[in-house]
Amino acid sequence: MKKLFAFLAVFGMLTFGASTLYSQEESVSEEVTTTEAAVEEAVEAAPVAVSEPAAADEQGGLHKQLKIKFVEGGVPWMMPILIFLILGLAICIERIIYLNLSDINSKKLLQRVEAALNEGGIEAAKEVCRNTRGPIASIFYQGLLRWDEGMEVVEKSIISYGSVQMGLLEKGFTWISLFIALAPSMGFLGTVIGMIQAFDQIQIMGDISPTAVAGGIKIALITTVFGLIVAMILQVFFNYLINKVEGIVGDMEDSSISLLDILVKHNVKH
């Protein structure tokens, strides 16, 4: 009887321990399942959370958008267009600085030259021109150098050296006009080649997919857009430079005529 009670007691203890262990295992498994579910939800939610800032970053900033479009257009075609823009802007900036330094107050220069002629003669006038920057002062100096050879030689010297100064003022203009022509041409070339590649892709697929065609055409047209933008930017600077040169040349011609009149008066006095 005691053995029976002992057996029942041991069996009860084992049953209670097994049930307790099983309940603990179930709770652990439930916790693991809950944890795994939470991890899966976090993983599924993570791309959304990450994609939203990424989308915001992609949409934000003109500089980043330009870099994306630059890569989409194809580096072999976009890089020459960028080089044309950099070189063209460098020449334009150099010409703007040079032309602004060349543009002086010609009326004041004429007054100083006339005063120097009256006070110190030709040598004093040459010294004034030598110490003054700009093409107008250089033309005056070349004319005064040939004062002893007569007014006719002075006039020819002024005309000849005026042509030289015009060439210096227009230096680099041919390169700017070349870049203006090459930038859209390179863009059109990239577009044509991109269209050919798009049609080759259609031929390989054997079916016209609107998505593939639209993507290929969009990428192909990016080079044309960038080429036209570069050409328009350089064209604005080029027109400004041309107007600046025309103004300086007109001032050179008027000042040269005024200098000849001053020299004639000085010749009559002496």
H and E order: HHHHHHHH
- SS summary, helix count: 8
Give the biggest beta sheet.
none
**What's the count of strands?**
0
β-sheet strand percentage: under 5%
**Proportion of residues in helical segments:** over 70%
Count of discrete domains: 2
Tell me, rounded to a whole number, the average pLDDT. Answer: 76
Rg, Å, rounded: 42 Å
Silhouette: rod-shaped
Note poorly predicted spans: 1-58
Question: How would you sum up this structure, described in words?
Answer:
With 270 residues, the protein is mainly alpha-helical. The protein folds into two domains: 1-60; 66-269, no CATH class. It is 91% helix and 0% strand. It has eight helices and no strands. It has helices at residues 2-59, 62-73, 75-102, 106-130, 135-145, 151-169, 173-205, 210-269. The longest helix is centred in the last third of the chain and has 60 residues, at 210-269.
Question: What is shown here, in short?
Answer:
With 270 residues, this protein is an all-alpha fold. It has helices spanning 2-59, 62-73, 75-102, 106-130, 135-145, 151-169, 173-205, 210-269. The chain folds into 2 domains: 1-60; 66-269, no CATH class.
